[in-house]
Amino acid sequence: MSDDLEAFMMTQPPTAERPLNGMTVLVVEDSRFASEAIRLLCLRSGARIRRADNLAAAHRHLRVYRPSVVIVDMGLPDGFGADLIKELSGDAIRVPVILGMSGDAGTCDAALDAGADGFLEKPVESLAQFQQTILAVLPQQEGPTSPRKLPNEVVLPDALALQDDLSHLAQIMRDGDDGATQDYVAQFLGGLALAAHDQGLAAAAKRLAAARLAGRSTGADMAHVTHLVAARLKERQQL
User: Fold this and answer.
1) Which of 26, 25, 28, 113 has its CA nearest to residue 79?
2) Which of 92, 153, 209, 210 has the greatest number of CB atoms lying within 10 Å of its CB?
3) Is residue 147 part of a domain?
4) What average pLDDT score do residues 190-196 get?
5) Separation CA 114–CA 34 (nearest Å)
6) Are residues 136 and 63 in the same domain?
7) What is the mean pLDDT of residues 89-111?
8) CATH number of the domain that residue 111 is part of
9) What is the pTM of this model?
10) Kind of pairing, strands 69-73 and 97-102?
11) Nearest 5 degrees, angle CA 6-CA 133-CA 91?
């Protein structure tokens, strides 16, 4: 969205076609691919989007402006999304809508217990689901006043964002192999695999996470993940 168009949209009231006109969405998400999906959904809904890829960046954003909606991934490189949700929900001047987001549906309760108004389960790609999740918890006076037909559009993020995420993951695995790194790799890869509809990556992420949880050796699982990520990168570079 160009700066001029974005500024124009921010002055427009919500409509049935663009029910999030005038709103700013801050998405706290370390995956570029997942963030790109949210960007496209915001664009089609009339909202401005800002992205923070970790908790520290989110706090920098929040010191500058107050978003209408904050969407927080539950697993971030520098901490837990639930901590930020709890902090935001306890603010004297509360953000109107706080949502948790994850590829692990089991984290929904943690998000709601921390004070989230709702939860988005990855992959987040349905325009209707995205809009309805926000509008269901938005103060009534801030949403569209006219009846609306639910859109059936599904967004498809840019493949270049997927390649960036795979490169990011490969670099993380080159830089370290301790337990915390493996936990992050399993979480990040699991969410990315869901967003990309990649069953092979999803299965590898689940095996790594299960090995970590059971306290088993993870050498073979990490080697398999490394091989798969390298293969996916090679495939993308040949397109």
Assistant:
1) 28
2) 209
3) no
4) 95
5) 22
6) yes
7) 95
8) 3.40.50.2300
9) 0.91
10) parallel
11) 75
Both 163 and 138 in a single domain? no
* 3-state DSSP assignment of residue 126: strand
Say which residues have a Cβ less than 8 Å from residue 72's Cβ, sequence separation at least 6.
Answer: 28, 58, 81, 84, 85, 88, 98, 99, 100, 101, 111, 116
Cβ-in-10-Å burial (0-12, 13-18, 19+) of 165 comes to: buried
Task: Say if 148 falls within a structural domain.
Answer: no
Kindly state whether residues 124 and 197 are assigned to the same domain: no
Q: How far apart are CA 216 and CA 178, in angstroms?
A: 13
- CA gap 89, 109 in Å, rounded: 15
Instruction: Provide the residue type at 223 as one letter.
Output: A
User: Domain range holding 7?
Assistant: 3-142
Instruction: Tell me the CA end-to-end span of the chain in Å, nearest whole number.
Output: 27
As beta bridge partners, residue 66 has none
pLDDT at 213 over 60: yes
Q: Is the pLDDT of residue 143 over 80?
A: no
Has residue 225 got a pLDDT over 60? yes
From 6-15, 45-54, 92-101, 215-224, the region with the lowest mean pLDDT: 6-15
Per the structure, the count of domains in the chain is 2
Cα atoms found within 13 Å of the Cα of residue 29, Cβ hemisphere only: 31
What is the residue type of 78?
A: D
Largest CA distance in the chain: 57
List, for residues 3-55, the tens digit of each pLDDT value.
Answer: 555 555 556 788 888 999 999 999 999 999 999 999 999 999 999 999 999 99
In a domain, 103, yes or no: yes
